[in-house]
Amino acid sequence: MYFDDTLGIQERTGQAVVAREAVRGIVLRNGRILMVQSERGDYKLPGGGVEQGEGHHQALAREIAEETGYQCLRVGDLIGRVVERRPDKYDPSLLFEMTSYYYLCAVAGEAGEQRLDEYERDMRFTPAWISIPDALAVNRAVLENLGQKDLWTRRENHVLLALQRLVESGVDLKT
After folding, report:
1. Taking Cα atoms as reference points, which of 62, 84, 88, 87 lies closest to residue 75?
2. H or E stretch at 76
3. Is the pTM of this model over 0.70?
4. Fold of the domain spanning 3-168
5. Distance in angstroms (rounded) separating the CA atoms of residues 63 and 51
6. How far, CA to CA in Å, does 98 sit from each of 17, 37, 81, 127, 162?
7. In this predicted model, what pLDDT tens digit does every residue of 113-142 receive, in sequence order?
């Protein structure tokens, strides 16, 4: 793995934990990365929760197809992990812990129809190919407007910065 980071609360403190596991795809093509843009303008990597009975590869192929319309041809190497810890928004006596696993992926040539969840439709998720520096710049501007309200954009910028450093150092991020 190229990165393995914790954001927010660094260590568990013994309180009960609400744990969630997610997978996220890194799809690079012609100097651009496949992301999903929301109505706020920010960009996130395609992916989401692992459902009961699914493995990481199966969940990621499903999530990429649902969110972007692209068929995932291949789920490759695990390149990183980010653990986010914060007080649970529904019960602050609990610790919410999201563990996101990042895999290199390849997709088919053209996007088909998205199959978005209700909240994704409400946020008008749209697939986009964008350079890593441009995605970082847009996300930084969105974060300036949102302050502490946004959590996924902070995580995604953390990962985008790690990817940018890897690309600049010559690491081959192809599947």
Report:
1. 62
2. strand 72-87
3. yes
4. Nucleoside Triphosphate Pyrophosphohydrolase (3.90.79)
5. 10
6. 10, 21, 10, 23, 19
7. 999 999 899 989 999 999 999 999 999 998
